[in-house]
């Protein structure tokens, strides 16, 4: 499991964009969002750098939480 901190993620639209970006890398990824902490825990076999790159293409910087 990988937990990513996404400081710009603040609303349901942001959450949907983040989910879509991560699922574009791994459609079977299981996501657990914490909107207060602005993090997402991702259960996936995808490489973290690939998920971070996908998030960057939709305007979100992500770091390890």
Automatic annotation (TrEMBL):
A Pfam family of this chain = HMA
Where does the HMA domain start and stop, copy by copy?
A: 1-63
Q: Which GO terms describe its molecular function?
A: metal ion binding
- InterPro entries in the record: HMA_dom, HMA_dom_sf
Q: List the PROSITE patterns hit by this protein, alphabetically.
A: HMA_2
Among Gene3D superfamilies, the record links this protein to: 3.30.70.100
Name of this chain's protein:
Heavy-metal-associated domain-containing protein
